[in-house]
User: Fold these one by one.
Assistant:
Number 1:
Amino acid sequence: MNKNLFKVFWALLLIILGSSFSSAQTLMPLPAHASVYSGSARGLWFTAPTGFTITGLRMPSEAGTGQQFIHVVKVNDPMPIAFGAQSANFNTLAYISNAPNGIIQSVNIQVNAGDLIGILGTTTGNANSYGPSTGGSTTIGGFPVDLNRFGYQGSIEAGAAPVIWGQIDGQIGRVEMYYMIGGAGFNNAGIPDLVAPTNFCASAQDIKVKVRNYGSNVLNTLQVQWSLDGVMQTPVNITTPIDTPGSALGNDLTVTLG
């Protein structure tokens, strides 16, 4: 098989399983480092585009070599929250204090689609890794996400922030967030492999993919939406149950798309 042609074909084949994509732990891309700010705690906030699990957190190396301090919250007030009108209406999802520098801190934070998530992060001395002046954009599970400015007018070294504020756009404090789509309690499927075609000789061939259950429950129904070379094709409805990982029946199903 010509590997370059295989890569081109896979790039042209877009597959969407409802709103879920499979993933191992993935680092959410961040804007580039611009400067170090050593005043109050800063961070970023975003609206979750889908359900996922935050699995790790780390301060980027540009923030310095001090201990890590990270505070993750679910904001309950509508955003933005004015700089001068800080809010205490949030739930703390994780608070990490005096963690060794450079080590990813393991967490297990379930996030639902639509949640407003804020993350503050500094190293010793309130040192923040600032991004560019215009906020930034990223992706979570393939979905586009806007990153916005988030802060607390004080230090999080002695304890979690009691109040927070959040602006639209603006210079963010960079905190590395590692995640996986789904997790315990989620129903998720993904496409780990292209089964066919396996060669690209001139002929008409079926397109077959492997569908995998990455969730914690049996999937009884699933719709695969797919496009080829930018043209949407007829969706494929799956009614064959796909078992959970580790089950005797296995959690893979080969599906012919067209």
Note: The CA atoms of residues 186 and 215 lie 6 Å apart.
Number 2:
Amino acid sequence: MRAALPLLAALLFTTAASRAQQADLVAGWEGGASRGYGFVQPSVSVGLAPGLAAFGQATASHLRYDLAEGTGRSRVASPGVGMGAGLRFARPRVTASAGVGYETRWTRRGLADGTEAEERESGALVQGNVFARPAPRTTVSALASYGAANRYVWTRAGVLQQVLAPQRGMLFGVGVGAEVTAQGNDDARGIGAGGVLDLGLRPFGGSLQFRAGYAQTTFSDDSGEGKVYVGFGVYRAL
């Protein structure tokens, strides 16, 4: 059953994409020495009215982190798959979306005493985002998600300033920005801040982002650590 879920998600997405008016792909990875999160998320959407669309999406992801405990450090790895649907509202200066779905994760814990524990976790997935353009070259964003499967909250707020707009004959535009991220569950909670470099790739109908910053993590036993994080993300219209 575990192996069949990604195949089923891909089949349903392919069927929906053949009927959709728009399709896109978002993927990325972010982390450091003791924490990392990677994901691939294709989505399709159909217009319902001017400025309003319904969308469906599938997600494959992998979350890992080290957990400080009294007897040492435990390692947690949690791959998962999910599907969801929602609504997207768009106006010239504001775009907002909200969706709900369901995901299943297979979490493995390498405990500090050398033993391992595995657990299958399933639950609702809720997420939303807002992108606003207060000026022609400035974008302000706020994103949030909650996965009930492993009770994981992720939030991010940022601002991006386009410093080089793509002109005729140019392959890309350039934007720079700053962001603040808060995330975690009962095992570990973290907050970080960093910078973003955005390359708008005109010939490919998408963009590529690089990010780096510093994050402070607090564990369930109230100990903590600070780490540098790096990451990248890609958006591609299909």
Note: The chain has a mean pLDDT of 86.
Number 3:
Amino acid sequence: MKTPRTEPNELRELAQLCGIQTFYLASDETMSEADPEVLMGLIRALGVPIERPKDVTSAIRERRLLAARRMMEPVLVVRSGRRTSFTVTLPERFEANFAWFTTEWEDGSTRREQLLTDSTPVATLELEGQRFHRYLVDYSAHHPDVPLGYHSLTLDVTDAGHAAASATSLVISAPPCPEPARGWGVSIPLYALRSQDDWGAGSYRDLAQLGAWASSKGAALAGGLPLY
């Protein structure tokens, strides 16, 4: 199937709406972007039917509307000691004061609260004739010491006192990952490593010698196959 000719920005937006990472940062901080053919293949693999350029535009509209109708992301990650916030999207007819959050901790205890009381929307969206208000919840301000583990956060929204909609997110609370020290290294398959007295297949002794030599040159690591 051929890749339709479309605007690169539209294709990347669609990929991001589908949850696809469109670029990565190399070790030297340079940015590498995925090729359009790669993005198109991934989008199609996710079941989005893209055959003509106009399909990309219509798929973006559908994904935007789907994202707006999703009140919360299905998974929220909380890092202890770091600020954690998430976005809540509500249809215009719902008021923030009628939004209740229930946290069910891993130990079975629960806490019910109004995290959006007197909150002002940070953005207003209008899609396909529908208006949505987007709110930013500073979760760490209400829960500075979230216990490590897997928890559940449920949002219930009422309209004129009647239950109208709900959404549940998995809350993963974990310690922050330490920032690794930057460095360079060498890599070679062990069976390709040669020394004066090797048997033609490499050895752990040769690997140790390689590590010592690389370290003397300022390397931070030595890698190889089949061992990393």
Note: Helices lie at 8-17, 36-45, 53-69, 139-142, 204-216.
